[in-house]
Design a protein that fits this description.
The structure holds 2 protein chains of 2 kinds. Chain A is of the alpha+beta class. Chain A has 2 domains: 39 residues; 86 residues, Alpha-Beta Plaits (2-Layer Sandwich). Chain A has 6 helices and 6 strands. In chain A, the strands form 2 sheets. Chain A has a 4-stranded antiparallel beta sheet. Chain A has a two-stranded antiparallel sheet with strand order 5-6. Chain B is of the alpha/beta class. Helices cover 43% and strands 13% of the residues of chain B. The chains are: A alpha+beta, B alpha/beta.
């Protein structure tokens, strides 16, 4: 039940417990208990909504910043990541393998805001060696949800 | 030219499928939300598509042996043995066909002579009756009932068996009702056939799509392999409808002759599809399980939704259709479907497309996303509300 429950919530967190119960062939209470269990175990971290923000406003810019850092003694990458995570502009931070260390997704109101953020906030952090900024041009899929219109259903009744 | 004198009476006498009419109406309307489709909404698993691309890259574009690639027949043999416990010889007991449909056609044409009776439980898939009629056989219909969960009962079967009965068609898991036959349901059927020369055509194209217990095939019962042609295919289980690939397994003495018809009519099934199908049988069980899990959630959602709306809905255990009863609306199946389509732009198929006894029911497919199903249910709810207030 857990896998199917998580799959349902992942694509639509607004399904009611009653609806989920019907689809899983469980009782409403079983669903509520399972969700509570997943929340308290820290498996479910939160519920969010995937917007197509372009429809609402064009007034924002997203970028991914590649950050090379020198890990600090004792605390490693975590201290730098924790520090960066505090900023509201930061949507995601991942430690990655390969040519750089931290991958950061930013959401700002303008190009200028991104460049100021990178130059003044990120580049100045002790241990940051270099930054590379990539601006997002087009979104196709986010959190498993397609943001581009799906292809027309060409199936024929026969 | 007087084409009415040119076209054969058998061809001109065939009634068009009752599904087609709704497709034609729906095609002319805007904003139609269809629940009429009888094929998966998933794409074929990627690994299968990749095998097809590889086959093309390697230039595998020639005919295969008439009964199909021996490597594919071996895979079918192993797969069928694993699922049913029955082993067919890849050399002589298996033919790879152009979809399950060709296998049905071949079986009927190989077995049925003019005047032979063929027992067909209905409601069921639209092709059995016309194919039997084309051979000059006489379709003998058994009307399955909702109170029996649309299963074929041995009692009903015995009542229809005569000394002219040649073939029983067993269409389970069933399109359109979603009914299944369990081992316990099949045992008395097998018992009723014992000692007769009646053959069985078991159409198990939906065998992978069951939601309660695992599918059980009649060929697994003692004495049934010798009197059964087992039809299956790739379309439904692996979302491979457009690849046109199915297969039949049965006694060599029957398939030897079926193979001649296949050879003269088809030559061999699509080569690229055959290479891809080997991959489907060997490594797609996880893809199939995911699709089944998704279908199952939609099935439960729809059955609950229709019952809430006051359209009593039998809980189907197979395929991807629900078959709600619409008698409470006072409309015929055909009128219900037409009104619903014109007024709310939702396309469902009248039960009568699958046999006269489908009157009072409609077939609703859940080969659609949950979001799509929810929108359709909202529109059907409005439709029923307006009917009540009319």
């Amino acid at each position: 039940m857990t896998d199917r429950l998580m799959k349902l919530l992942k694509t639509n967190a607004r399904l009611s417990n009653a609806e989920i119960a019907v689809m899983l062939g469980a009782t409403e209470k079983e669903v509520a208990d399972k969700i509570a269990e997943l929340e308290s175990a820290g498996v479910i971290k939160g519920y969010t909504t995937v917007f197509d923000e372009d429809v609402v406003s064009k007034d924002y810019v997203r970028a991914v910043i590649e950050l090379k850092v020198t890990p600090k003694a004792q605390v490693g990458y975590d201290a730098i990541a924790r520090h960066i995570a505090q900023y509201t502009e930061v949507e995601n931070i991942y430690l990655v393998s390969g040519g750089y260390d931290l991958s950061i997704t930013l959401r700002c109101h303008s190009l200028k805001e991104v460049s100021d953020y990178v130059a003044q906030r990120l580049a100045t952090i002790d241990g940051v060696v270099s930054t590379t900024t990539h601006f997002f041009l087009q979104k196709y899929k986010e959190s498993g949800i397609m943001l581009i219109s799906e292809e027309a259903d060409e199936r024929v009744m026969q | 030219m007087d084409y009415s004198q040119i076209v054969s009476k058998k061809a001109s006498g065939l009634k068009p499928s009752g599904i087609r009419k709704y497709f034609d109406i729906a095609a002319k309307l805007d904003n139609v939300i269809s629940l009429g489709i009888g094929e998966p909404d998933f794409s074929t698993p990627w690994t299968v598509r990749r095998e097809a691309i590889k086959a093309l890259e390697r230039g595998k574009t020639i005919y295969t042996a008439n009964p199909g690639l021996i490597s594919l027949r071996r895979s079918i043999s192993a797969y069928t043995a694993e699922k049913t416990g029955v082993t067919y010889d890849p050399d002589g007991e298996i033919i790879v066909t152009v979809g399950g449909s060709e296998a049905i056609d071949l079986t009927v044409r190989t077995i049925v002579e003019p005047g032979d009776e063929v027992i067909i439980p209905e409601p069921s898939f639209v092709c059995y009756k016309p194919i039997v009629e084309l051979t000059g056989g006489i379709p003998v219909i058994i009307e399955t009932k909702e109170e029996n969960s649309f299963k074929l009962t041995a009692q009903q079967l015995k009542e229809k068996i005569t000394d002219r009965t040649k073939l029983l068609i067993l269409p389970y898991p069933n399109n359109p009702t979603g009914a299944v036959m369990t081992k316990r349901d099949l045992e008395p059927i097998a018992e009723a056939l014992k000692g007769t020369d009646i053959m069985v055509l078991t159409d198990e194209i939906y065998s992978e799509l069951t939601y309660g217990q695992k599918h059980f095939s009649i060929i697994s019962l003692p004495g049934m392999k010798e009197r059964t042609v087992y039809v299956n295919g790739f379309s439904k289980a692996f979302a491979m409808t457009g690849w046109r690939l199915g297969y039949m397994c049965g006694p060599k003495e029957v398939l030897t002759h079926a193979l001649k018809i296949h050879q003269f009519g088809i030559m061999s099934s699509p080569t690229v599809s055959q290479y891809a199908a080997i991959e489907a049988l060997s490594s797609c069980s996880e893809d199939v399980a995911n699709m089944v899990s998704e279908y199952d959630m939609r099935r439960r959602y729809l059955v609950d939704a229709f019952n809430r709306l006051g359209l009593r809905c039998f809980m189907p255990e197979g395929a991807f259709y629900v078959f709600p009863c619409i008698k409470s609306t006072g409309l015929s199946s055909d009128a219900f479907c037409e009104k619903l389509l014109y007024s709310k732009r939702v396309a469902v198929i009248p039960g009568t497309a699958f046999g006269d006894c489908g009157e009072g029911y409609v077939r609703v497919s859940y080969a659609y996303s949950l979001k799509h199903l929810k929108t359709a249910v909202e529109r059907i709810a409005e439709f029923l509300e307006e009917l009540k207030n009319a």
